[in-house]
Design brief:
By secondary structure, the chain is mostly helical. Helices cover 40% and strands 0% of the residues.
Length: 92
Amino acid sequence: MAEPTRDDIDALVAPATPQFAYQLRARIEELVKDLPEDSEIRRCGEEKMEYLDRLGHASSKAEEGEREPRTRPGWEELPSSAPADAPLPRRG
């Protein structure tokens, strides 16, 4: 297999959703695991894996648009309102 590129990693991460974050994280881990520790591509992959880990604990990418106010009626009834940049805490 050819050495992975930043574009390869970005292509995997771009369509990521919370439901598939960990599957994509595993694919990126496979792509970069044999690269040298000081590889720019490996560091990029590790950063994206951290992002996907946060996304896996979130309910939305929430990268665009405004956030819903917590004062909105019914907010407390949502099972998860956490975006990727502020995920819910891990359980247990």
